[in-house]
Design brief:
Structural class: alpha/beta
Largest sheet: 6 strands, mixed
CATH architecture of the largest domain: 3-Layer(aba) Sandwich
Oligomer: single chain
CATH superfamily of the largest domain: Nitrogenase molybdenum iron protein domain
CATH class of the largest domain: Alpha Beta
Strand content: 25-35%
Number of helices: 8
Shape: globular
CATH topology of the largest domain: Rossmann fold
Length: 190
């Protein structure tokens, strides 16, 4: 596999004509999309796609600064009776890296990690994106959490900043998926 570099990306050319673009920044964090993207075609096409993505992210980032300012954001997934928090991977890549929104709580790691309601409450996000799976355990946990007095005291709840999200496009971990998430975040906070 041949490797090329431009800007802060690494491009790995494969024999079949596909390119894998790995955008690396800092201590292993990646941009723009925190993962490797496969783009069929030539080096110039890959660079054009990245440039277009960066421009779109910059436009939305500027708009969001006016709309949400310094509000802290947390994205969670309630699944199989457990609450998971998104870090800087998956949809967190778009929220915290590409759009540079403020993470609620301590600095996020890369992982999608389980948290308790008490940990979520301690972070007290200004805005909360919540995906709740359809399984009975998740529905029961979500009902129990939202019935708690502590839930009603969360800033996101008091200010109407809880947004229920669906898996599509939010859980699509691909280059085009990240582009769709950019548009979804822009629409959500419009």
């Amino acid at each position: 596999m041949r490797r090329l570099a431009f800007r802060d990306q690494q491009i790995r050319a494969k024999p079949n004509g596909h390119y894998t673009i790995c955008a690396l920044v800092g201590k292993g964090l990646a941009r723009p999309s925190a993962h490797c993207r496969r783009i069929s075609g030539v080096h110039a096409q890959a660079e054009q796609w990245l440039d277009k993505y960066d421009r779109r992210a910059a436009v939305i980032r500027e708009r969001l600064q006016k709309r949400v300012g310094e509000s802290s954001i947390m994205a969670i997934h309630v699944m199989h009776g457990q609450i998971y928090r998104f870090g800087r991977r998956n949809l967190g890549t778009v929220l915290y890296n590409d759009l540079q929104l403020r993470f609620a709580g301590h600095s996020p790691g890369n992982d999608y990690e389980p948290i308790t309601f008490e940990q979520l409450a301690a972070c007290n996000p200004d805005k909360l994106l919540a995906a709740v799976s359809d399984d009975p355990q998740s529905a029961a946990l979500w009902a129990a959490v939202t019935a708690k007095a502590e839930w009603k005291e969360l800033t996101a709840v008091r200010r109407g900043g809880v947004y229920r999200i669906k898996p599509d496009p939010w859980f699509d971990y691909s280059a085009l998926g990240n582009e769709r998430i950019l548009n979804a975040v822009d629409k959500l906070f419009s």
